[in-house]
Task: inverse folding
């Protein structure tokens, strides 16, 4: 089966690492549906039943950890065939209350009626952001920043070099990759707690997810570091597809924030990806300012909520209300500040307990 829309988030190794570390602890029940034509597989739906408080939610496996969700399609022509295959999917998965598709990308028919798009989806609050790469080094530099901005980063690099030996590298030793990723997650946990934000890596085996990929999935992952005298100043965990490098997680030592080590490492990865023949550098989901600065295009992603049972109808409107409330909080400085304070208090309470 040739996958015309292959994304690393639907890769078996990535999905299996998620299931072994997170999915099992959440008691997610996999529902892998395969659609065939002339006895040949053409579309694969990596779905699962998520159960909580008596509610059975049908969603993509690893949905919350994927930045692009959708089926694996072997024949792209089927995406415009108009076949209503979801009815059959619902019959095969068994009892479920609601289908919740988040981060649905355009290439899965986000805004068009086709084989895998049930209806036009609602846009998520954020988009994904992509930088198209050039083999011409100077052209790539100009597409990202002005010469004056690059000079500023060169000055920061010289400051670090005055402190010792500065090295950029892609880690290859499995045990070192695991150690560095675990250290990255610890730094992120401390940073998120300080900013009053929820740490997604603290529950249900999530702390083991990326270390597992770092050890067992070297073909689809890269661990990059910026080191000063051998000590790690910044770490970036990337995923790799056929034509693209994807920025998944990153952290840096705040003691060296004056030199922007995380950004310096990011630049190294971008130019290394271009040098190795990749066509794009994908900063993935989220509207962080640095992504908007370096990327030249954005991809809108959507969400679809389809009730399957009467309970699902109520859940749909509850979820929509929650989304609307979240948007209001994000767009209100006073409410957003209050929410951060509450999250910080809850995070500190969790650590003390």
Result:
């Amino acid at each position: 089966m040739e996958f015309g829309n292959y994304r690393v988030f639907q890769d078996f190794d990535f999905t299996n690492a998620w299931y072994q570390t997170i999915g099992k602890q959440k008691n997610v029940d996999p529902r892998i549906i395969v659609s065939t034509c002339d006895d040949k597989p053409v579309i694969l739906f990596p779905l699962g039943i998520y159960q909580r408080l008596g509610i059975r939610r049908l969603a993509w496996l690893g949905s919350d950890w994927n930045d692009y969700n959708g089926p694996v399609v072997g024949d792209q022509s089927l995406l415009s065939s108009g076949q209503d295959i979801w009815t059959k999917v619902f019959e095969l998965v068994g009892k479920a209350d609601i289908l919740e598709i988040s981060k649905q990308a355009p290439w899965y028919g986000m805004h068009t009626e086709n084989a895998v798009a049930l209806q036009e989806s609602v846009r998520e609050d954020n988009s994904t952001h992509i930088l198209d790469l050039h083999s011409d080094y100077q052209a790539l530099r100009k597409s990202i920043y002005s010469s004056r901005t690059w000079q500023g980063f060169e000055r920061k690099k010289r400051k670090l070099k005055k402190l010792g030996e500065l090295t950029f590298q892609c880690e290859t030793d499995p045990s070192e990759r695991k150690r560095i990723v675990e250290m990255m997650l610890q730094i992120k946990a401390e940073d998120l707690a300080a900013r009053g934000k929820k740490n997604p890596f603290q529950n249900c085996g999530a702390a083991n997810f990326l270390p597992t990929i770092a050890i067992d999935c070297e073909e689809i992952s890269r661990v990059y570091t910026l080191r000063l005298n051998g000590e790690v100043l910044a770490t970036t965990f990337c995923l790799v597809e056929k034509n693209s490098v994807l920025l998944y997680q990153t952290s840096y030592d705040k003691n060296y924030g004056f030199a922007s080590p995380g950004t310096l490492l990011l630049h190294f990865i971008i130019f290394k990806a271009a040098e190795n023949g990749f066509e794009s550098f994908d900063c993935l989901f989220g509207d962080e300012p640095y992504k908007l600065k370096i990327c030249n295009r954005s991809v809108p992603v959507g969400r679809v909520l389809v009730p399957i049972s009467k309970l699902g109808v109520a859940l749909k409107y509850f979820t929509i209300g929650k989304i609307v409330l979240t948007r209001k909080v994000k767009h209100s400085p006073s409410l957003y500040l209050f929410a951060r304070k509450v999250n910080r208090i809850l995070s500190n309470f969790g650590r003390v307990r």
Summary: Confidence is low (pLDDT under 50) at residues 109-113, 349-353. The two ends are 50 Å apart (CA to CA).
